[in-house]
Amino acid sequence: MNYAEANDTVSQINADLESIVAWVWRRFAFQEDSKTHRSIEHWPSNDELVAWLVQNLLCGTQLRGDCDDFALLVQLLVRYQYGADAGELLKCRVGQE
Question: Do residues 34 and 40 lie in contact, with contact meaning Cβ atoms separated by under 8 Å?
């Protein structure tokens, strides 16, 4: 792979990441774990994340969770898209609209 091809690949990955983050962001509402899971902190397994995503998509309801739920869901979708450990691909952007 030459420099131009590598640059195109990186650009596509960044566009994909932005699309995934935007997709989750449109469907996500912040809610503390104490309300969602009735515990101070909850880190869902991948199976829980998939079930949560499917259930909410089928019911047409918003995804409700805290910051780590958002990040884990984005990471799960990136892993699904790229079929590999995408931990190195995950980038975070913090901000408000």
Answer: yes
36-72 pLDDT, tens digit per residue, is 888 888 888 888 888 888 888 888 888 888 888 888 8
Beta pairing partners, 65:
30
pTM here is 0.70
Residue with tokens 């910051």: 67
The kind and range of the H/E element at 29 are: strand 28-30
Q: Provide the b/e sequence for 27-61 (b: ≥16 CB within 10 Å).
A: bbeeeebeebbeeeebebeeeebeebbeeeeeeee
State the helix-helix crossing angle for 67-82 and 3-27, rounded to 10 degrees: 140
Q: Tokens 């449109």 sit at which residue? A: 26
